[in-house]
């Protein structure tokens, strides 16, 4: 249903920029809005790393956001949002507080410290660069931005994991409604193609063959999952007219896209977080927006895995396909 587009920037008013350190295997992604944009959030993981999510509560004052930051680096990576704020302040963009403007930039981070150089994390400089590179249209995905150090399939330990990444998708529906998603996939479990039922990436055995993550969990039932290893963070956006509470509901429904593709998901050791942004142009029901938000989130997760490139010690989906 509807026409498949390429990425979240097909939603009017949205630009995306990446910045990463490929040697250190970490990065950040800036999602910028050029018009008044309402935002909600749903945090399902029990070990999240987030910023400004309380602000998005429908009970609280500020209605609009100016950007969203997705980053690696665990809690250290939240510093990248400050760089995006600096970029927007220089443009005069933000909440007018009389003495100047305060850009509202919610953020979420994933745990990529064991991959690459743990001493290098997304910071203000990287966030500023990502914001300055934000554009519409064709964008690099896979190992770009917040997906640079993402990995999946860590049920048996990081040594047997595969490369995760960042992906995007969008859909044009009748009436001019456009819904898009961007997601950085860094899961402890495996990622499956919900249409074909095949495992795209997950834990590997000694021969490099993917093994069933759920079977591994059963066989080592008394061994806890590794802290911080299952964090998938993303944004769904539309040009719908939504309130903050409606946007929060869309974010909640968009998590269904993660549940369709990632096994396990929303565990005690993860920080799964989805923001939902609405640029206030088209009348649409919350149920319609939320249903297709889950659809494009599903597609974005699959795209993240299929577009990822292997790095030292972490083969990607495309590497196994070649074999």
From TrEMBL:
Pfam families: Peptidase_S58. Gene3D superfamilies: L-amino peptidase D-ALA esterase/amidase. InterPro entries: ArgJ-like_dom_sf, Peptidase_S58_DmpA. It comes from the Bacteria. Belongs to the peptidase S58 family. This is P1 family peptidase. The lineage of its organism: Bacteria, Bacillati, Bacillota, Bacilli, Bacillales.
